[in-house]
């Protein structure tokens, strides 16, 4: 412990000896954090709320709106663990809103706010300097990958991140020997809950579970093994069971169906479709490496890695080999290193690869950065300052903040302009455009619309076919299903579309012009005498064709 303390005091003494020439007033940094969070959230709000609709949202939002009136998997074709659908559906039910896209985008904004606040809380609990905490926030907010579809859309790509942060915050408390036993037990339980919630949003965050379990057993060697098992490991596991209840219940109710819709969907049907698809994709390992390089070795992710490397070397220069090794071999650092490595491995598992699959290592890189960052030199409950940080480390942290903000500014600053113009918000614009288009044609409120872009239909207040609730995600893989596999799905296929619609005549057909797969719906509408609405074309950010059934 003496070596660790030396790391964070040597340079502070040197500064004091030089007349405190480099001393910082910690007050302005303390005010910097809430100000940074507020400004960042304003920029993020404008960007999130004005980001164009993506095909993934047609599934995530629509399925949540249709549930629980139909089975999440067999009827609606959902292909992920159930937490996000449950969360979205609960918000719809509790608020009574019919602005489904707007409500879910606001939830993503709330997830960003939670992530920033949790970085603050984690930094405070670890005794990290305020400037290092602001740097971690800036590196998250400026992350170009997360400022794209993975972090802007109402999907399950970003929302597990704050839950993984929450799990780490609680595990810090669970393994803190200074806390009373009851508090440590409670925090171990809550950490387990948060871990399972993160996994229930996105399955590839399952890498957290074994790492936290091992940490709860091995991290505190000074305690007897039986105490570690009773007061850390068991509460963690019990919390995991509680947090994982929705997923466990779904598997218990229909194990074969869940396996078909989650595991086999992505390992068999999804892969088979993309092998035949002509759309751009990363299938080979070489292609995945190039995509990983673009995401991990560019922008603020590379800045995080640089910061980690410098922070890892810094203790050796201040406290020598022994002190440096003691700093690096702390359980927090080892835990984050393991999660980063497992996150890298699991990112290469799905085929084909897309940018959202390479997100898992990013939050753990940020936590590794915080684990290695300079301490404030004050108690856990006291305001932090920079008094124990050397001028080179301070310069590095300021540089990281500046570079992160520069990297993200091209995407973040337009968000402020968008925030000031609610008419440009995608949720409001989509709701308005779809209601105007459907109401103008006198389409009844209970009219049923055939579309592979079902979010547009429900934003317009109309009904859809359960077979198309997942958008194109089940429809496009139907030709690759075996007869046995088909039993788990309520769907049709491109080849069966005409027969299906003949038997279930829609009141209207809605086609997203940007989606080639939906051209079959246009062909059906034209061949069956549907009237194309004048001016259906481009309406703001939406491009669609609307066909209305004509009376016989």
TrEMBL record:
Keyword hit for Heme: no
Protein's UniProt keywords contain Membrane: yes
Membrane spanning residue stretches: 21-49, 106-122, 128-146, 158-175, 195-219, 231-252, 295-316, 328-348, 354-373, 394-413
Keywords: Membrane, Transmembrane, Transmembrane helix
The protein, known as: Glycosyltransferase RgtA/B/C/D-like domain-containing protein
Species whose genome carries this gene: Aurantiacibacter atlanticus
């Amino acid at each position: 412990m003496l070596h660790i303390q030396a790391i964070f005091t040597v340079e502070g003494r040197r500064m004091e000896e030089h007349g405190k020439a480099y001393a910082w007033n910690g007050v302005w940094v303390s005010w910097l954090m809430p100000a940074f969070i507020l400004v960042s959230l304003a920029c993020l709000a404008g960007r999130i709320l004005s980001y164009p609709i993506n095909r993934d949202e047609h599934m995530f939002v629509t399925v949540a709106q249709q549930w629980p009136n139909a089975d999440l998997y067999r009827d609606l074709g959902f292909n992920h663990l159930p937490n996000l659908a449950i969360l979205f559906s609960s918000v719809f039910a509790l608020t009574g809103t019919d602005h489904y896209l707007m409500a879910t985008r606001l939830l993503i904004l709330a997830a960003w706010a939670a992530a920033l606040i949790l970085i603050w809380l984690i930094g405070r609990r670890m005794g990290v300097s305020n400037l290092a905490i602001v740097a971690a926030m800036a590196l998250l907010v400026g992350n170009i990958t997360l400022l794209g579809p993975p972090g802007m859309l109402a999907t399950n790509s970003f929302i597990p991140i704050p839950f993984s942060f929450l799990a780490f915050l609680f595990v810090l408390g669970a393994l803190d020997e200074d806390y009373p036993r009851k508090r440590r037990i409670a925090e171990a339980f809550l950490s387990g809950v948060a871990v399972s919630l993160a996994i229930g949003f996105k399955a590839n965050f399952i890498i957290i579970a074994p790492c936290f379990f091992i940490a709860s057993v091995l991290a505190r060697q000074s305690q007897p093994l039986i105490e570690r098992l009773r007061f850390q490991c068991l509460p963690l596991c019990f919390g995991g069971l509680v947090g994982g209840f929705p997923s466990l219940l779904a598997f218990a109710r229909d194990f074969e169906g869940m396996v078909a819709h989650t595991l086999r969907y992505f390992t068999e049907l999804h892969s088979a479709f993309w092998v035949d698809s002509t759309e751009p994709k990363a299938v080979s390992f070489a292609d995945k490496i190039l995509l990983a390089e673009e995401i991990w070795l560019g922008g603020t992710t590379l800045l995080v890695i640089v910061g980690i490397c410098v922070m890892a070397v810094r203790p050796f220069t201040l406290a020598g080999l022994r002190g440096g090794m003691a700093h690096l071999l702390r359980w927090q650092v080892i835990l984050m290193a393991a999660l980063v490595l497992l996150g890298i491995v699991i990112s290469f598992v799905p085929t084909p690869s897309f940018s959202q699959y390479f997100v898992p290592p990013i939050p753990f890189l940020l936590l590794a950065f915080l684990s290695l960052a300079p301490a404030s030199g004050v108690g856990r409950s006291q305001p932090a300052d920079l008094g124990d940080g050397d001028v080179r480390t301070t310069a590095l942290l300021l540089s990281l903040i500046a570079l992160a903000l520069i990297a993200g500014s091209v995407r973040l600053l337009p968000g402020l302009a968008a925030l000031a113009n609610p008419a440009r918000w995608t949720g409001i614009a989509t709701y308005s455009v779809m209601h105007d288009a459907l109401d103008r044609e006198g389409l009844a409120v209970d009219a049923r619309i055939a579309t592979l872009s079902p979010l547009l239909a429900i934003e317009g207040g109309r009904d859809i076919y359960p077979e198309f609730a997942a958008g194109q995600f089940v429809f496009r893989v139907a030709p690759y299903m075996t007869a046995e596999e088909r039993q788990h799905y309520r769907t049709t296929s491109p080849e069966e579309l005409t027969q299906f619609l003949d038997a279930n005549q829609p009141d209207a057909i809605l086609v997203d012009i940007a989606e080639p797969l939906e051209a079959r719906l246009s062909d059906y509408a034209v061949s069956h005498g549907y009237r194309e609405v004048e001016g259906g074309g481009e309406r703001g950010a939406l491009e669609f064709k609307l066909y209305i059934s004509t009376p016989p």
